[in-house]
Amino acid sequence: MLGVIPESEARQYVLDRCPPLPAVAVPLEDATWLVLAEEVVAGEDVPPFANSAVDGYAVRAADVAAAPVELDVIDEVAAGAASAMTVGEGQAIRIMTGAPMPAGADAAVMVEDTERLDGGSRVRIARGVEAGAAVRGVGDDVHAGTRLFVPGDVVTPAVAGVLASVNCRTVSAVRPATVAVLSTGDELIDDGSPLQPGQIRESNKTMLLGAVAEAGCRVVDHGVVRDDEAALEATLRRAADTCDAIVTSGGVSMGDYDVVKAVLSRIADMRWMQIAIKPAKPFAFGLLTASDGRRVPVFGLPGNPVSSLVSFELFARPALRQMMGHPTIDRPVVRAVVDEPIRRRPDGKTHYVRVRGAFAADGRVHVRSVGGQGSHQLAATAAANGLAVVADGDGVDASGEVPVILLSVV
Fold first, then answer.
1. Alpha carbons 334 and 315: distance in angstroms, whole number
2. Is the pTM of this model over 0.85?
């Protein structure tokens, strides 16, 4: 295959030119799903005081060792309040979950093991507890000075909750990439008007807007650009000045006479590739210099919709994730069982077969082809939740194994 390069070479070429974006100070409320650029050390204990883990009664363990016993109830304390009373011999304080343990008490008894007496002035404790029972100690979750997170950690919702619990109001994180998405071609119609001969409905841009957003980027829709070199150049330069990366679809095949090639070849440092994969063999990548001197990555995806989606998954998505500092830039891969044969012919390429997979009774992921595998058959591809990586050869027999890139939860 003259001029065809390995997938690994194309991938490395792209990744080498998409370094992480600068870190910025981000308010905690905006930090979820970003990647930390600096370690976070707890400045406070969590919890900051000993508190009850149950609704019930704060007691002295020694007083309930011979349960059942009856105790005098000298106070009541709710979460957000504190009691000024000290629990003495034969006494208890009614307490709610999260409320501070009162002085003198060393355990809590859950309400299910108690019975209120005399209108609540006394309580019968049905079961004894040991000292420390149902008590959350100071720093039981986090001690001040503990290193909680390191650079490269993703601020998941749970991580954000931990940061809030230690009063970390701002974090240093890699900012999300702002990505321009556009399609080109006089044949594309996106206004709902009746199709004229030779016209087709725009779909790639709509698809890629969602794919870029799902990758964690901020998306800017630059619309459909007509086949006019001046208009396309103006759009690309405006995108480079306002965005961190540009994703286009169409006009990257060998031999195409297209304004995309004409313009990008003139204004950007582009590499037009033919890659040993199917679909998505044609792919372009380059750097366009913005007015402020930044070198903005440009991903030129094929015009066929399935090829556009597959090339985005294999090359653009990992690069964008790398730009945002993610330590894991690729989707998970599983060894799946093929429930029906996947046939192909040797052609020197790796085939990415669109499959639908699910866990079976044997605890493994089983997959089947979604049907039409043409690079134009987006409707069939829409049913896929994985890409089966089928090596050069004759395919995979039923009950055989194949690596599958998971596009969504199976």
1. 19
2. yes
